[in-house]
Amino acid sequence: MNRPESIFATDEIRLERRLPTYWRVTFDMPPVNIFGPKHLPLLSDIVTAIETDPQVKVVVFDSAVEGFFITHYNFLAPLEESLAVPPGRTGLQSLPDTLVRLSRAPVVSIASIRGRATGVGSELALASDMRFASREKAILSQWEVGAGLVPGGGPMARLPRLIGRGRALEVLLSADDVHGDLAERYGYVNRSLPDAELDGFVEALAMRIATFDKDAIAETKRLVDIASLPADVEIKPEWDAFLAALARPAAQSRIKALMARGFHRPGDVENRLGFHVGQLGK
Q1: Is the residue at 49 inside a domain?
Q2: What residues make up the domain containing 257?
Q3: 3-state class of 58 per DSSP?
Q4: Strand 58-63 to strand 68-70: parallel, antiparallel, or no bridges (unpaired)?
Q5: Fewer CB atoms < 10 Å away: N or C end of the chain?
Q6: How many CB atoms lie within 10 A of CB 82?
């Protein structure tokens, strides 16, 4: 393979062209890959490139930060920064707009999950076409209810379609960590693989798909989307509910308690967020 060509790069999100037909998006937001309002336009621009490039057929999302795929939203950023980001081309707010467009793009999207996919990370993985997880290192969660919040990036619309209503409610309302093997059993991810095999498996699958005809890929995906993707009307209320919940005293109190324990900093709270949100009401 030729040396990858960087076609979109910031210090924190890199889009590399491995081949004209195969791209990689790598998140590098140390120390714990927290996603905030400043990243919303960057991710939207990447999805626009994926949507409009005539050659790309498959894109893989991964992380350069040990232990974290993407973790939660940035709660230290002023709320006004999130509110100031304009809606996207679907009319949805920026994050749900970007994730909806990724799901519908005529390109195969694959999340390669090593470390925590927590909140936004889980929501990006759910919006991707396929998800593959490190058996030893992947942790997925929608932790928000444990902090008095409502998830905002579409998991209530997407999870029941993947894993069924009961398991979706378990994931959402327990707000607990879901490790790689259980995620596979539930259907949260396609497969969990031994960590040493994850990169090779995803690379081989991406390279295989990249050799196929783009029109055949796009038309097959479009027809699967008709049968499986939620409508925008199901996605829209989630971001509004997230912002409304964020303003409630109960959520502010719980987030403050998490901050006092070490939230937003490297350490046990970020490494075991499911455990710590379970302690807040005790």
Answers
A1: yes
A2: 5-197+209-277
A3: strand
A4: unpaired
A5: C
A6: 22
3-state secondary structure 144-184: HHHHCCCCCCCHHHHHHHHHCHHHHHHHHHHCCCEEHHHHH
Residue 10: both structure tokens together: 């910031």
pLDDT of residue 1: 44
Which of 5, 12, 123, 219 is flagged as catalytic? Answer: 123
- Among 16, 81, 136, 144, the one annotated catalytic: 144
203: annotated active-site residue: no
Nearest to 134 by CA among 200, 58, 205, 206: 200
Which residues are paired to 26 by β-bridges?
Answer: 14, 62
pTM here is 0.95
Q: Is residue 204 part of a domain?
A: no
Tell me whether residue 144 is one of the annotated catalytic residues. Answer: yes
Contact status, residue 115 vs residue 66, Cβ threshold 8 Å: yes
pLDDT at 11: 83
What are 229-280's pLDDT values in tens digits?
999 999 999 999 999 999 999 999 999 999 999 999 999 999 999 999 999 9
Strand-pairing partners, residue 70, are 117
Contact (CB, 8 A) for 183 and 139: no
Q: How many domains does the chain have?
A: 1
**Which of the residues in the chain have pLDDT under 70?**
1-9
Q: Is 122 exposed, middle or buried (0-12, 13-18, 19+ CB in 10 A)?
A: buried
